[in-house]
From TrEMBL:
Coiled coil: none annotated. This is Cytochrome c. InterPro entries: Cyt_c-like_dom_sf. One of its GO terms (molecular function) is heme binding. Belongs to the cytochrome c family. Electron carrier protein. The oxidized form of the cytochrome c heme group can accept an electron from the heme group of the cytochrome c1 subunit of cytochrome reductase. Cytochrome c then transfers this electron to the cytochrome oxidase complex, the final protein carrier in the mitochondrial electron-transport chain. Gene3D superfamilies: Cytochrome c-like domain.
Length: 40
């Protein structure tokens, strides 16, 4: 996303954003991307 302030860890993570991957991220964001700012 142009202009979004991603963490370095998120920038370095290589992901194919399919339905499972997105669900894993949304369910456990800090486990999926350690150091992420997302905490819902």
């Amino acid at each position: 996303v142009l202009g979004f302030n991603f963490t370095e860890t998120m920038k370095e993570k290589i992901v194919v954003w399919d339905e499972k991957c997105l669900n894993d991220y949304l369910e456990f964001p800090k486990k999926f991307v350690p150091g992420t700012k997302k905490a819902f």
